[in-house]
Design brief:
With 88 residues, the chain is of the alpha+beta class. It contains three helices and five strands; from the N terminus they run E-E-E-E-H-E-H-H. A five-stranded mixed beta sheet has the order 1-2-3-4-5.
């Protein structure tokens, strides 16, 4: 982990993974599943975030949103994509 790790709850449906990687990753919890916003720069950091999010909810990951295409926001996608594929 690169920085001080934190997983604050912004409100009842939003969590932010801070410090796991260069970019933050966000989990939006819906009624039937979750959406992940940005997936970090590596499979390793994405896997750590995935596990941290899974400790909060086991609802299926239904979608991934990329805020933009820089590597630190998209390269960890495979970790979350596998979960999305198993849902769809």
């Amino acid at each position: 982990m690169l920085f001080n790790v934190d997983l604050p709850q912004v409100n009842s449906r939003i969590y932010v993974a801070i410090g796991f990687a260069l970019a933050n990753s966000i989990m939006l919890v819906g009624d039937d599943g979750v959406v992940i916003v940005d997936v970090t720069e590596s499979l390793e950091s994405a896997a750590e975030i995935y596990e941290a999010f899974r400790n909060i909810t086991t609802k299926p990951i239904t979608d991934i949103i990329y805020t933009h295409n820089h590597a630190d926001h998209v390269n960890g996608a495979q970790v979350f994509y596998i979960a999305v594929q198993s849902y769809n």
